[in-house]
Amino acid sequence: MHYVPHTEADKRAMLAMIGAPSVDALFEACIPPDCRHDKLLEVEPALTEDGILRELRTLAARNVSAADRPAFLGAGLYRHFCPALVDSLQQRTEFWTAYTPYQPEASQGTLTTIFEWQTMMCRLTGLAVSNASLYDGATSMTEAVLMALRVKEAENRTVVVASKGLHPDWRGTLATYLRTLNMPLVEVELADGATDPASFAAALAARKIDPLRVAAVAVQTPNFFGVIEDVEALAEAAHALGALCIVGANPVALSLLEAPGRQGADMVCGEASSMGNRPWFGGPGAGYLCSRMDFVRQMPARIAGETRDAHGRRAFVLTFATREQHIRRAKATSNICTSQQLMALRATIWMSLLGKEGFHELGRTNLSRAHYAAERIKAIPGWKLAHPRRGFFNEFTVTCPLPASKVNQQLLKKHGILGGLDLGRVDKALANQWLLAVTDLNTREEIDRLATALETIR
Amino acid sequence: MNPTDLKYTTSHEWVRISGDTATIGITEHAAHALSDLVYLGLPKAGDKVTAGKALGEVESVKAVSDINSPVDGEVVEVHDALHDSLSDINSDPYGKGWMVKVKLKGKAPASLLDAAAYDKLVAESA
Question: Structural domain boundaries of chain A?
Answer without folding.
Answer: 8-43, 84-350, 359-456
